[in-house]
Write a structure and sequence with these properties.
By secondary structure, the chain is α/β, with parallel strands linked by helices. The chain has twelve helices and eight strands. An eight-stranded mixed beta barrel has the order 1-2-3-4-5-6-7-8. Strand 5, helix 8 and strand 6 form a beta-alpha-beta unit. Helix 2 crosses helix 3 and helix 3 packs parallel to helix 5. The chain is globular, with a radius of gyration of 21 Å. The protein binds ligand C2E and magnesium ion (3 copies). This is Cyclic diguanylate phosphodiesterase domain protein. Keywords: Phosphoprotein.
């Protein structure tokens, strides 16, 4: 009996593995097709200057809008895109769309810096710097209006090789931000060796910053670090005014989160560009 049920369990395991593999293959095929149609689009989330209360930048956050309706969030397809290499095509699409959009807003009198997430796979492509240069030129976007977001793990994956890549990118005139700062690599020494401009404080430190003394300590340490290294800071995941109150009047502090806006389609950003968000912020 034991033997029989063992075989049964194994069969069950095998069937569920097959089902999983089939589902992944289906997802990959759907994504491949979606990239050829207009189903993969960037949404944009405002980044507000704490001093002026104005939008000074946006982060492009990719969405899958299937023809049958609904919205698929990036966590459900970025991992597959990374495994299959489709991330290069996806990343280039978001970079191009984002830069065209930033140029359009610039032409309308609103210089807004466009932040683009760069995956490890993309960053490792030998021609990545050239791709960025080409896209900037095609769009006619000033490099100062492009920011590339890299995570610590991407930056540190091959430190010596990456430093050359980062210097190359910096030479284009774009700015470089460390995304999810504090959650990845533990060494801080790269901050002084690498040409980094901005630290993005991870949402996980911000969400309980008002009630968790440990999180507050980490956020304060990051602010102090940024100040002494003369780096800009973007605080992610701002949902309440009280989270802003604890951030000191840091030089160049930018704020990003649902309090101001969720990531939305480009047409919803335009009317926000002339808006003053000061009423949402407690006096710093
Ligand atoms: P990320 O780059 O750290 O982006 C920030 C995430 O936090 C976004 O999730 C955003 O919607 C969410 N967020 C912003 N403000 C708040 C808030 O106040 N509260 C809460 N709870 N969440 C907030 P999203 O759009 O689901 O993106 C998830 C991740 O997917 C991104 O994390 C990024 O790592 C990746 N991703 C998104 N777009 C791209 C892309 O074009 N290329 C690559 N390589 N990765 C991307
Ligand atoms: Mg990001
Ligand atoms: Mg982040
Ligand atoms: Mg993230």
């Amino acid at each position: 009996f034991a033997k029989q049920s063992g075989r049964c369990c194994y069969k069950f395991y095998q069937d569920s593995m097959n089902a999983k593999a089939a589902a992944r293959l289906q997802l990959e095929q759907d994504l491949r097709r979606a990239l050829k149609s207009d189903e993969i689009v960037p949404f944009y989330q405002p980044q507000i200057c704490a001093q002026s209360g104005r939008i000074v930048g946006v982060e492009a956050l990719v969405r899958w809008l299937p023809a049958k309706g609904g919205i698929i969030p990036p966590d459900e397809f970025i991992p597959i895109a990374e495994e299959t290499g489709l991330i290069n095509e996806l990343g280039r699409l978001v970079l191009e769309r984002g830069c065209y959009q930033a140029k359009q807003w610039f032409d309308e009198g609103n210089p807004v810096r466009m932040a683009i997430n760069v995956s490890a796979h993309q960053f490792r492509q030998l021609d990545f710097t050239q791709v960025v240069a080409d896209v900037l030129q095609q769009c006619g976007l000033a490099p100062e209006l492009l920011e590339l977001e890299l995570t610590e793990s991407v930056i540190m994956s091959d430190a010596e090789e990456n430093i050359a890549r980062l210097i190359e990118l910096k030479a284009l005139g774009v700015s470089l931000a460390v995304d999810d700062f504090g959650t990845g690599y533990s060494s801080l020494s790269y901050l002084k060796r690498f040409p980094i401009d901005i630290l993005k404080i991870d949402r996980s430190f911000m969400c309980d910053v008002n009630s968790a003394p440990d999180d507050l300590a980490i956020v304060e340490a990051i602010l102090a670090l940024a100040e002494s290294l003369k780096l800009g800071v973007i605080a992610e995941g701002i949902e309440y005014g009280s989270q802003i109150a604890i951030l000191k009047n840091t030089n160049q502090l930018l704020l990003q989160g649902y309090l101001f806006s969720r990531p939305v389609a480009a047409e919803y950003i335009s009317p926000l560009l002339n808006q003053d968000f000061n009423h949402l912020m407690p006096a710093l």
